[in-house]
């Protein structure tokens, strides 16, 4: 018998319950049974809130099982719970979503400047505000010549660029980790919002063929689904070296999730585990990486920017410099609070560094080396609101990447059970009866609404700063101030403490 106490307590108000059994039908974790009345098995509850949302009588409440353990500031309940689980299973603890530990969130210790009196602010309701951003390699300088008609022509050859209407891109989440309906919703929303979604490492389903201009295709270590057609069905190609939630380790899509459709997109047999190796087996140096970057550029006829995604680790700045020198047109940095469909908990919670420090270090290093314009920087790893977006751009990002926020917009309740394949909201699952719970049209509308709302808020922030374009904010660290941060952290972030003027 399991010694693990329930994490949550499911309370049913039997006075108001009308015995409709909707909660029984909606709970994909097998927690609810009907025996004359609804009887919950507390141990199975993951707090996904599906039953709470769909109960017509609001008769259900889910509470944390607070009384299970005696208080200890050192041996926290979840620490003891994890030991009990491993004592029973002898296995690695898997988890989903981002790092939930109470590490300092540096975004919350940075404040944005605003104009007063001598430097007038701009009203975004009356003045045009530019949120457009272009991803790709920019020239250091532009050169012009006059043609035979004495007209001025640009003579500098520009590298391929991808235009974003807002500096917010949907994160790489593979078809396999998430459902086809979730992929459809992301693709539709990317198109509606003038931005990009990223296929992740699982290839691309044929249903997404009409969204080519809004798709980043990923080339990861497993090379699942990578063909010339795949590379060319995109606006941009991303080589995935690392992921913020699990730096240094590969991926694992269990065979149970590999059905007919996924086997086609991944190009593997039905029911086999899709294992992505920890490294790319043809990349052991910057020179090797450069060969892959140029192989992809050749395969796409030099028409698309090629980006490289890395986890935020200790020497991220030096690595990013090498990546840019290897020919990448963009670098995506994924911080240690970034999400995952499945990762060992010990890696997710203990490996990597915060995105804020990694971003500041990379932007500064590329500036110091005079190569900042050679590549765009995308910043990922727990961007939670438009305030985080503005701070990331002021710290040096060209655009941000949102994964968890996008999932939450589609209905995710961050129960962290993505790896079980039982997602009650039809997002991180391949079970047909669950997948159909997510209507892609509705999902797309909710995602588009989120991007629109953040876009409006960004315009408000720009207006208060007295600038009328997101490009004017990029790398403007003088518009940020730190609060409750030590001197060294302020120095690493390249910002002054609050209370100090220009
Ligand atoms: S797992 Fe979700 S649906 Fe099932 S009882 Fe818990 S909150 Fe309700
Ligand atoms: S959904 Fe609500 S009203 Fe219906 S059986 Fe469950 S608890 Fe009762």
Question: What does it look like?
Answer:
This protein is an alpha/beta fold. Helices cover 30% and strands 17% of the residues. The protein has helices at 22-26, 50-54, 77-89, 180-193, 228-232, 260-266, 286-299, 316-325, 345-350, 355-368, 386-395, 404-410, 432-435, 440-465, 470-473, 487-493; strands at residues 8-12, 32-35, 37-40, 60-64, 94-95, 110-112, 133-135, 144-146, 152-154, 162-164, 168-170, 197-198, 215-219, 236-240, 251-253, 274-276, 306-311, 330-334, 343-344, 376-380, 399-402, 480-482, 496-497. Strands 11-21-20-18-17-14-13-12 form an eight-stranded parallel sheet. It has a three-stranded mixed sheet with strand order 6-22-23, covered by helices on one side. Strands 1-4 form a two-stranded antiparallel ribbon. The mean pLDDT is 95. One iron/sulfur cluster is lined by residues 10, 26-27, 29, 31-32, 40, 45-51, 62, 424.
Name a few traits of the molecule:
502 residues, three-stranded mixed β-sheet, eight-stranded parallel β-sheet, 16 helices, alpha/beta
| Overall mean pLDDT | 95
- List segments where confidence is low: pLDDT < 50 over at least 5 consecutive residues: none
> Hetero groups bound?
iron/sulfur cluster
Strand order of the largest sheet: 11-21-20-18-17-14-13-12
Straight-line N-to-C gap: 65 Å
Overall, the morphology is globular
The counted number of beta strands is 23
Rg for CA atoms: 24 Å
Helix content: 25-40%
Structural class: alpha/beta
Instruction: Please report the number of helical segments.
Output: 16
Strand residues, percent: 15-25%
Largest sheet: 8 strands, parallel
